[in-house]
Amino acid sequence: MSRVSVEYKNHIAHVTLTRGDKMNALDDAMIKAIISAGQEVAASDARAVVLSGEGKSFCAGLDMASFASMAQTDPTEWLMTRSHNDANEVQEVALVWQRVPVPVICAIQGVAYGGGLQLALGADIRIAHPEVKLAVMEMKWGLIPDMGGMVLLPKLVRSDVLRLLTYTARPIGAAQAADWGLVTKLSDDPLTEALALAEDIAGQSPSAIRAAKRLIEIAEANPRAEVLLEESSEQAELIGKPDQMEVIAANLQGRKPEFN
């Protein structure tokens, strides 16, 4: 049974979790399919990505059968193996979307719990339905976030919020999530809004968009001097090049740019 579908239209990659009957819960097959989808999209010429889940919920986190199988194995080997650059396999479920070189927009409905929340946090932008529930759910099962959450969460929320969410596992509503920075904005139709935003991004200079994503990641994690140098380096590769010249021509002629 397919766990994830990937479709391309108008330079946008549509990545959909297709286990809707199970609230898109994460089992081993789903984990591998999500990573594979991220790798495929990263290697494509897509200019933006929309990540969503079919059915009532985006992703309810790890499924119960996976909890049971975890209890019967020695976790040290698979947790400590760096199989995907600096990450293990389960961490790559979220982090692969940060490695995708173009913006990733996540549309969230229903719930995003545990691993499902961490998956959503791997996107650049999150658009959520007003009735969404989000939770750092791992403490409910006597665990801690281990799918990249501790790389992603501190960039988005204050330390006290991070601690409250992690210590209690309490679900929070969409408005609170937006106020705390877990979601970017609310929409009654998050998928439609995500697609519209992706279309807007896909209409920008492809080389500038990719440069912007690289630069933002460096800016969030590096010292001032390195960020300033990287600004200059990235800009030097854009000025006067075909994509930028097409943007200028399109602006002067009052039309939409067309990129190769």
TrEMBL record:
The keyword DNA-binding is annotated on this UniProt entry: no
InterPro entries: ClpP/crotonase-like_dom_sf, Ech1-like, Enoyl-CoA_hydra/iso, Enoyl-CoA_hydra_C
GO annotation terms (biological process): fatty acid beta-oxidation
Keyword terms: Fatty acid metabolism, Isomerase, Lipid metabolism, Lyase
Lyase keyword on record: yes
Pathway: Lipid metabolism; fatty acid beta-oxidation
Single GO MF descriptor: isomerase activity
Enzyme class label: lyase
Enzyme Commission code: 4.2.1.17
Similarity comment: family membership: Belongs to the enoyl-CoA hydratase/isomerase family.
Protein name: Putative enoyl-CoA hydratase echA8
Organism: Ruegeria atlantica
